[in-house]
């Protein structure tokens, strides 16, 4: 792609770009001065969530998550419709005042009147009033109904159909002349619409690093109003925080009172349960109870063991006594707890000793001995009976001891259970007492906190406005206007060039007729330059046709017979300048001392007669083709003023059957004869895409010059030229572009004139004298 040529394509439309630049920059400059710029007002607050949690009455020890610490609740509160509706109502944001402008209404702070609506904001409809201040009062024009009303300055009253009253401000009353004939615009809108607009212009964002910081911003055309909005939001949020705390404290105290009453009943109930439990289990003091039951278990066990030992000793004594004979003394160390037994044993042993003394003095049959032996039997039996009774007594005691021991063990084993149960009761009672004490303490704290309640909101940055307008930004807006001023004409030119299917220069033939030689460009000239093609002419048309002839010469076949060459000029449609090119090419060749015959073969629409100022009815080619007995040489116009070597055979009268005339052999005969007299025969033929006349005799030409006209010929038409060549209907074809713009192809004019040197004004007098 040739960037320079592409650039030149657009440069030729420079007036479009200049006009667009002037219009857009002027409009942008005027717009910036006419519209109200939009500013951003910001504020930064901090809400200490940790402080708020520290002041909670009832708290639990848990890990604080990010979700608990963020300010989503506050952001939802600020952007809620109820909050914003109250804000709109308090600040009257549903009423907007402007000074009327040509392009846009401009926000002004100094309004000479005050509106007072008579109906609720929700009942208002979207309506605009144009108000003009006059000496007599206010002229109110409703934009919807276009109704005019007059309200006098000193009287305030209702007008039917107008939902407000109006009066001058104190400042306007003192200096009414400065407001006269100024027109203002007042817009009223329902609360719902005002809330939507406020929510759209309001932005609430939390700091990513410090989540307790909340950034508030409002965009609008009135910075004072934006500051009021942010201040009211901060104040209302602060009041809401305090109110929520008070409400929370009130609910906390109420809840604590309820819990204290409930815990009082629960504590009393647990004490009653403890009292019943102690009474039912005969427990007065748990420690003493444990000692008593433990000692009782030990005692009962010891008694049982002693009783078992006595039983064993008794059984041993009975067995030992029974085994002993009457001559054997009985022991007295059985350790039995029978006071009379030892005496019986002593008596028995005494009687036995006495019997042995008698036996030493007498025989066994001695009555005293026999009586004493009988007495020993009785004593022994008495001892055995005593031991038997004692043994039965011990056995009965053993049974009683077993029962008592079992009961003592059971009661001792139940001590841990009773201790646990009583401990649970004591724990419950202790927990209730601790909770009860804590609730009492918390209630006192809640009452004290309510007395010294403060907000945990602090203002880090008070509302302030950045007076660098965010919309429209002057520099970007002007740069955008300048850029658009170039893009718009560029777009039009680009579309125009893309949709342009015409041929303009040789480049437009690239790809369309790549294999067909390009012969040259014929410049666009006016009527005066048309005839300036003499042998010594240095005009553009003369130079161009000489170049054309030079390029045609390269296409001509080199025959040894040295006969004249036939050059056929044709085109796609009428109006492309084939007759013009044929005429000037013939003149150029004639001025080069070549014998030239110019034939007008366009029998349907002849054009050559215009260059010679002759009638179309002048005899010519059609007359010869119709009747070959006539000599065609008699129809020639010889040695014209343009060239002494140029003869012209005009087309003659327009025949009714040009195709039949051109297809007979008379034309071929004429050309064969003419080749002997002329070096070149130039034929101006009919367009090939309109009629078939030219295609019927094109084979007679040595070279076919196909003429296309710049800014006129369509590229699609030239595509058929390839078909004509492939079919052999046209041969040895070259293309020439006619009517091309001089500046687009000729960057300079070639001249042999001596270049003039510009002399400075202060040297002109010296040069003139010399």
TrEMBL record:
<keyword id="KW-1133">Transmembrane helix</keyword>
<keyword id="KW-0547">Nucleotide-binding</keyword>
<keyword id="KW-0808">Transferase</keyword>
<feature type="transmembrane region" description="Helical">
    <location>
        <begin position="12"/>
        <end position="32"/>
    </location>
</feature>
<keyword id="KW-0067">ATP-binding</keyword>
<keyword id="KW-0472">Membrane</keyword>
<dbReference type="InterPro" id="IPR050445">
    <property type="entry name" value="Bact_polysacc_biosynth/exp"/>
</dbReference>
<dbReference type="InterPro" id="IPR005702">
    <property type="entry name" value="Wzc-like_C"/>
</dbReference>
<dbReference type="GO" id="GO:0004715">
    <property type="term" value="F:non-membrane spanning protein tyrosine kinase activity"/>
</dbReference>
<dbReference type="InterPro" id="IPR027417">
    <property type="entry name" value="P-loop_NTPase"/>
</dbReference>
<keyword id="KW-0812">Transmembrane</keyword>
<protein>
    <submittedName>
        <fullName>Polysaccharide biosynthesis tyrosine autokinase</fullName>
        <ecNumber>2.7.10.2</ecNumber>
    </submittedName>
</protein>
<feature type="transmembrane region" description="Helical">
    <location>
        <begin position="477"/>
        <end position="495"/>
    </location>
</feature>
């Amino acid at each position: 792609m040739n960037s320079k040529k592409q650039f030149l394509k657009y440069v030729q439309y420079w007036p479009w770009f200049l006009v667009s630049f002037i219009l857009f920059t002027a409009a942008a400059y005027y717009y910036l001065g006419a519209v109200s710029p939009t500013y951003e007002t910001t504020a930064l607050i901090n809400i200490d969530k940790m402080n708020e949690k520290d002041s909670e009455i009832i708290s639990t020890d848990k890990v604080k998550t990010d979700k608990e610490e963020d300010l989503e609740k506050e952001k939802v509160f600020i952007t809620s419709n109820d909050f914003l509706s109250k804000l709109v109502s308090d600040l009257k944001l549903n009423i907007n005042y402007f000074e009327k402008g040509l392009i846009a209404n401009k926000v002004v702070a100094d309004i000479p009147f005050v509106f007072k609506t008579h109906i609720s904001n929700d009942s208002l409809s979207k309506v605009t009033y144009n108000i003009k201040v006059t000496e007599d009062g206010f002229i109110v024009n409703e934009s919807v109904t276009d109704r005019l009303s007059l309200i006098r300055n000193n009287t305030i009253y209702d007008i039917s159909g107008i939902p407000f009253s109006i009066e001058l401000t104190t400042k306007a009353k003192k200096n009414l002349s400065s407001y006269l004939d100024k027109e203002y615009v007042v817009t009223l809108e329902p609360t719902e619409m005002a809330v939507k607009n406020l929510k759209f212009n309001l932005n609430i964002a939390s700091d990513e690093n410090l989540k307790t910081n909340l950034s508030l911003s409002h965009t609008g055309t009135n910075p004072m109003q934006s500051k009021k909005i942010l201040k009211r939001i901060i104040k209302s949020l602060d009041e809401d925080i305090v109110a929520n705390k008070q409400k929370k404290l009130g609910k906390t105290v109420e809840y604590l009172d309820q819990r204290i009453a409930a815990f009082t009943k629960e504590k009393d109930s647990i004490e009653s349960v403890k009292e019943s439990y102690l009474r039912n289990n005969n427990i007065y003091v748990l420690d003493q109870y444990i000692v008593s039951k433990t000692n009782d278990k030990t005692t009962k066990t010891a008694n049982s063991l002693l009783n078992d030992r006595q039983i064993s000793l008794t059984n041993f004594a009975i067995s030992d006594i029974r085994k002993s004979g009457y001559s054997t003394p009985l022991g007295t160390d059985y350790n039995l707890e029978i006071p009379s037994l030892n005496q019986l044993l002593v008596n028995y042993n005494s009687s036995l000793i006495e019997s042995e003394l008698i036996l030493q003095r007498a025989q066994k049959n001695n009555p005293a001995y026999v009586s004493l032996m009988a007495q020993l039997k009785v004593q022994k039996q008495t001892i055995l009976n005593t031991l038997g009774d004692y043994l039965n007594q011990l056995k009965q005691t053993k049974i009683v001891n077993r029962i008592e021991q079992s009961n003592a063990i059971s009661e001792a084993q139940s001590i841990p259970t009773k201790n646990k149960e009583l401990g649970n009761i004591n724990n419950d009672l202790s927990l209730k007492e601790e909770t009860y004490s804590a609730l009492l303490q918390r209630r006192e704290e809640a009452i004290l906190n309510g007395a010294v309640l403060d907000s945990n909101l602090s203002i880090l940055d008070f509302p302030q406005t950045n007076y660098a307008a965010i919309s429209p930004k002057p520099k970007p807006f002007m740069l955008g206007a300048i850029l658009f001023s170039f893009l718009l004409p560029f777009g039009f030119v680009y579309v125009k060039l893309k949709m342009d299917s015409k041929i303009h220069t040789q480049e437009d033939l690239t790809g369309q007729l790549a294999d067909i030689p390009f012969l040259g460009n014929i410049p666009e000239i006016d009527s005066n330059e048309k005839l300036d093609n003499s042998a010594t002419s240095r005009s553009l048309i003369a130079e161009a046709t000489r170049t054309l002839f030079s390029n045609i010469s390269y296409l001509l076949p080199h025959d040894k017979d040295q006969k004249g060459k036939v050059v056929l000029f044709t085109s796609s449609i009428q109006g492309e300048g084939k007759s013009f090119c044929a005429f000037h090419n013939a003149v150029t060749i004639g001025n080069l001392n070549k014998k030239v015959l110019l034939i007008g073969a366009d029998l349907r629409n002849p054009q050559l007669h215009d260059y010679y100022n002759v009638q179309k009815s002048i005899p010519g080619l059609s007359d010869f083709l119709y009747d070959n007995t006539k000599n065609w040489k008699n129809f020639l116009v010889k040695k014209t003023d343009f060239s002494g070597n140029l003869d012209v055979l005009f087309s003659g009268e327009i025949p009714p059957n040009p195709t039949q005339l051109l297809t007979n052999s008379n034309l071929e005969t004429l050309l064969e004869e003419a080749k002997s007299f002329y070096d070149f025969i130039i034929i101006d033929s009919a367009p090939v895409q309109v009629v078939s006349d030219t295609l019927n005799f094109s084979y007679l030409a040595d070279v076919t010059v196909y003429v296309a006209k710049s800014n006129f010929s369509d590229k699609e038409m030239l595509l058929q030229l390839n078909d004509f060549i492939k079919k052999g209907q046209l041969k040895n074809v070259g293309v020439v572009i006619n009517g091309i713009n001089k500046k687009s192809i000729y960057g300079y004019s070639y001249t042999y004139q001596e270049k003039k040197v510009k002399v400075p004004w202060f040297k002109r007098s010296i040069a003139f004298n010399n």
